[in-house]
Backbone:
């Protein structure tokens, strides 16, 4: 299947591991010029070297703390300098800290706001002029099943990721005339370090092992397993393709059926 993505410039944020890394790898397979960023230099270097060993192509890697506006601006400028204007932006980030409402202070809310919502706003603002000049672009935000079905103990993620979906829907209405689409991908339980950390946290509260907690998570999913990061990445790459040019303003769950609502 031809996706018409060869030579497109892609920036994937928080891409040193997990879903972000899987997304970067699939875009490289499609012949894109891929840049990845993370605030963890060690993980970035390891990922870049492993990708090069697999595909004989080293992604452009950038150290960027997405909670900081200046570092976001610098990252986008470096990509432009090396590859040109960004055609495809994948806004990904780690989940904010778990906790119930009573556990969280103002600074926790502020950090989550910067990490989840404002990073998406800032990256999008910076790449849109180049997309408009080309009359083509894709912005894809990695959110969570929590935007459709809130998860206990994740009030920060539930709240701020829902803000991203509202932002994306509003923005999609504004930029559609430039052949720019804006969509959200809402993964369910996916085998990443974030899910492992959540399982460990739940295990501490329940007194069970984290392995048992992960097994219970998988059993709750109608397909009876957890997702692989590359399965989430496949939807992201499809949404970036010409085949998905008429999809915009949408939030698409890829969750094995665990979300109970019909919309």
Residues:
């Amino acid at each position: 299947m031809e996706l018409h993505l060869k030579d497109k410039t892609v920036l994937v944020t928080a891409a040193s591991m997990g879903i972000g890394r899987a997304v970067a790898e699939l875009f490289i397979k499609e012949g894109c010029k891929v840049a990845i960023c993370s605030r963890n230099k060690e993980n970035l270097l390891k990922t870049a070297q492993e990708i090069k060993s697999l595909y004989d192509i080293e992604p452009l890697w950038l150290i960027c703390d997405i909670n900081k506006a200046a570092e976001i601006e610098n990252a986008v400028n470096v990509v432009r300098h090396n590859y040109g204007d960004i055609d495809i932006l994948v806004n990904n980030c780690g989940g904010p800290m778990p906790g119930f409402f009573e556990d969280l202070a103002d600074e926790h809310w502020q950090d989550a706001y910067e990490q989840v919502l404002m990073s998406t706003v800032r990256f999008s603002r910076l790449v849109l002029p180049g997309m408009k000049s080309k009359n083509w672009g894709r912005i894809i935000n990695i959110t969570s099943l929590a935007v459709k079905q809130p998860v206990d103990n994740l009030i920060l993620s539930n709240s701020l990721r829902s803000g991203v979906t509202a932002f994306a829907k509003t923005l999609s209405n504004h930029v559609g005339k430039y052949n720019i689409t804006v969509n959200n991908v809402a993964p369910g339980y996916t085998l990443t370090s974030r899910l492992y950390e959540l399982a460990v946290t739940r295990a501490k509260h329940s007194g069970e092992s984290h392995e048992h907690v992960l097994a219970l998570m998988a059993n709750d999913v109608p397909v009876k397993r957890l997702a692989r990061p590359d399965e989430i990445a496949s939807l992201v790459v499809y949404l970036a393709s010409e085949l998905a040019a008429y999809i915009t303003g949408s939030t698409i769950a890829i969750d094995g059926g665990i979300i109970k609502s019909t919309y």
